[in-house]
Amino acid sequence: MKVVWRLGTATVRDVYETLRAQRRIAYTTVMTMMSILEAKGYLRKERVKRAFLYRPARPERVVVTSMIREFVNRVFDGASRPLLVHLVKGRRLSAGEREELLRLIRETKE
Fold it and tell me: Which pLDDT does position 110 carry in this prediction?
């Protein structure tokens, strides 16, 4: 999704080449993921000559929120607390990120 949002529109080949520059990945994996994202309504596709051109179907914020909700439901049975505990205890958050998290918590209490 990040590649398609950044490019605006992209073919499977475009996404594959972009990702391949960062890590090894199979073309068929990219094709499968893009098909899944299209089936879930995150991407739209249209045929342009011999390829499909994909574009975001929803704004990034909406999709990220939906994907996070789906992940929390699937991995943590819908509970956000285990995810937050994992991030904090796993030292995945920098001091600045922890401060930001505390600030957001304080703001929502008001």
Answer: 61
Query: What global pTM score does this model have?
Result: 0.69
Nearest 5°: the CA angle 4, 10, 12 is 100
pLDDT digits (tens, 9 = 90+) for 30-54: 999 999 999 989 999 999 988 899 9
Question: Cβ of 99: how many Cβ atoms within 10 Å?
Answer: 11
All residues at 6 or more sequence positions from 46 whose CB lies less than 8 Å from its CB, including other chains = 52, 53, 55
Same domain for 92 and 69, yes or no, is yes
- Residue 34 sits in the same domain as residue 72: no
Q: Which domain covers residue 65, as residue numbers?
A: 60-109
- Interatomic CA distance for residues 3 and 24, integer angstroms: 16
Please check whether residues 67 and 103 belong to one and the same domain.
yes
φ, ψ (nearest 5 deg) of residue 92? -85, -15
